[in-house]
Write a structure and sequence with these properties.
The complex is a heterodimer of chains A (422) and B (96).
Chain A: E1 9-12, E2 15-17, E3 20-22, E4 27-28, E5 32-33, E6 38-40, E7 43-47, E8 50-54, H1 62-72, E9 78-83, H2 88-91, H3 94-100, E10 105-109, H4 113-120, E11 128-132, E12 137-139, E13 144-149, E14 159-163, E15 168-172, H5 193-204, H6 208-218, E16 225-228, H7 238-248, E17 262-268, H8 274-287, E18 292-298, H9 304-312, E19 316-320, H10 330-337, E20 348-355, H11 361-371, E21 381-384, H12 389-406, E22 413-416
Parallel strand pairs in A: 8-9, 9-10, 10-11, 15-16, 17-18, 17-19, 19-20, 20-21
Antiparallel strand pairs in A: 1-2, 2-7, 3-6, 4-5, 7-8, 12-13, 13-14, 14-15
Chain B: E1 3-8, E2 13-18, H1 23-30, E3 47-52, H2 62-70, E4 77-79, E5 90-95
Parallel strand pairs in B: 1-5
Antiparallel strand pairs in B: 1-2, 3-4, 3-5
The chains are: A alpha/beta (422), B alpha+beta (96).
Chain lengths: 422, 96
Amino acid sequence: MARQELKPVEIANGVHWVGALDPDLRMFDLILKTANGTSYNAYVVHGGEGVAVIDTVKEEFSEIYFSKLEQITSYERIKAVILNHLEPDHAGAVPELMRRAPHAHIFVSTRGLKLLQALLKDELENYQYTLTDTGDVCSLGERTLSFINTPYLHWPDTQCTYLEDEKLLFSGDVFGCHFCDDRLYNDLVGDFRFSFEYYFKHIMRPFKRWVLEAMDKIEPLQPRLIAPAHGPILRDNPLEYVKSYRTLSNSYLTKKIDAREKSLLIFYMSAYGATADMAKHIHAGASEIEGVRVSLYDLQGGEIEPFIDLIEGADGLLFGSPTINGDAVKPVWDVLASLISIETRGKLGGAFGSYGWSGEAVRMIEDRLRGLKMRVPERGLRMKFHPTEDELEECHAYGLALAEALAGKAKPKELDFADLQM
Amino acid sequence: MAKGKLTFQDIGVSVSVPAGTRVIEISEKVGAGIIYGCREGDCGTCLMTVVEGAEHLSEPTALEDRVLKENMAGKNMRCACQAQVADEGEIVIKPA
């Protein structure tokens, strides 16, 4: 059981950890489980011209945080308040910190300004702030902190801060994990390898593209110490964790399809075989287009987790669902609800399904796909009871059109506004 | 009613639309690559590049101006959830 450390811990020359431990937390942000809590790591850097405070803690831990802060500095000495990320677990004590040190200069990324305004409300006008970008610096006299803009790791506002003389990277949520151990350092705490990967999969995975861009900025620094905002401080072989982020940002499927091919996945559920027949004809139509590899899956026979890995690597997704009690069926929603852990932005999507009375499922699924930032180029097919031969031909044409769109083979179209008002 | 022509360059689709139509009303229906977040001029997710015919779009409102500034948008960029077709001209757009 982690014991709440009540003293600041010097982690490098003139750098203190002033964070808080939260060993009893079992669910973080409603989406991540943690079997032994977490920590909210905040740091203080001492310089000749004052100190910089890097991040704060969740509001309910403010007392511990301020107690530690007061053991190593006066509020008058605080020259800079650096906010790497403005989620409440790191910015919870910012309003009170600024009341205590109103002269301190806030450093926040450009995208973070909106969040800072939302956090401090009218009080913000009492304070000075600078919007940061990669390469900007904060000087403490003989020591310099520089900023590295790392958007979408995991919010638009996120940045890292680098202390050059110590080669110390304050990485915010990057390289963090929910693991609580009062021994603080990665070479002393328990085995947190699972927590590190679990955190990446749930927090960073949808942003792999940005993770790789950020690693391009971080790797040349060759940090000797990485101080994240959650979990162990990485002093033993920190570059291994940077390497892990690269590895974890690759595909989770070891084999890839031909890079020249587009992958189109068709998922369906069918009560009486009607939606299944639609799916098969859509599959046949799509399969006519060269360069598109089409796969058909009955959701009754699949587990969600491997489908998520498959979907992450796919270019297009179609979902077939009958309408039951005015809704799509639960297994379809279960898959669609699980897609928040991967990037779906820009993938092609579509929906189809048979129905008896009102057929709401197709439009509901299309709305969800748009909500996932996918593009839905063809209006989905709704068919009453079992499709006729003509309707099955429509399914074939629908599959063909989607595969053409996916392969970039769709012919230019001229439409009128009225054509779209159905 | 005056109609403008809105072309989504990334998918090769052109649509004749009445003046006053917002880009978002059309782009989602034709499956263009512009993507949306809040859909009400707050988040800047739907930034698009106006390739041609920017003068045929409505002037940015104070709300859109603020979002463009916050997102460091280039001078040919607009928010697709806010920009409206203003007149009969031809406009060509693509995702930012």
